[in-house]
Please model this.
Amino acid sequence: MALELQTVDEVDTTDNFIVAHSDADGISAAALYLIANNIDIEKVRFPEVFGDYVTPNDIMLDMTPLEGFKGLCIDHHPQHPENPEYQLIWDNVPTTYIVWKHFKENIPKGHWWKVVVGVAGDGQANVLEPMFWYMFPELLLVSESRYWGGSSYKNWEYPVYLRLASLINAAARSRNPNLALRKLIEARTVDDILEDAELEAYRVQLSKRVSEIVNKEAKVYSLGPLRLVLYSAEERLGGRIAHRFWEEGMTVIAVNQQTNEVSIRGDLTTLLVELLNKGYGRFGGHAGYAGGELTNPIGPSTLYELITKIFGGRYE
Ligand SMILES: [Mn+2]
Model:
């Protein structure tokens, strides 16, 4: 399991790293963890594979570790063993919130709006205690943009707290989570992220790629409740693509044929994670919202194979 940016030889095994999930929650959790514990940003890695680590004694944030991990894991994903070999701090709120709850004494209050970025990134801003909104009302501003809707100009509105999460996510999906982490740590105010030109460029480029794929490039095959979406992209767009092809009653399997990354959305997500883990690759995630990596490419006929396994009683 290769990690980005380094080979095993370069790793000082007497030392450990912070390994974090490469999304807004993982990045915000890492930012707060570093600030609270006064750790250098150089110690952070964002593994390509969910749950991967550098040394067994790493600090893992917002991921369920792969086998052999013995360090500290702070997480909210559901797949941890009952008696893990590692130290686990688990709660059913986004990891950023867990980190804040444990380390808030050591996090200067000026950084507390970063909690909202991570929690909103996981779609759970509703779990935040009211204090955050009183402390940082600027998060509730609405950002607007006009766009040409074919026959007239339309207005697109988005609350600032969600926009911050989407800017951080844009860099992460463009495979530059380290940039997002650095920007988030260094940011003094909400405006520093909101008005950051580099993050905005990632966001614009990413939404352009999503539109191109959804409107032109993607190939879509459906069978019963399953919909397979095939596309190619350098960026990590699976969640966005799967979301765009999702509808009530359908479960979407979006496959990036360039990287073999898969995103799954819908009611049958847990069932598909179980099926696909039997010989197709390695998959995991939240209920209704999962992902993984294929070890063997899949195609349209795989849908028939999966449906047969579900309906035909060939489940083993
Ligand atoms: Mn999370």
User: Anything to note?
Assistant: The mean pLDDT is 91. The chain has two domains: 8-201, 218-311. Residues 25, 62, 76, 94-95, 122 surround manganese (II) ion (CB under 6 Å).
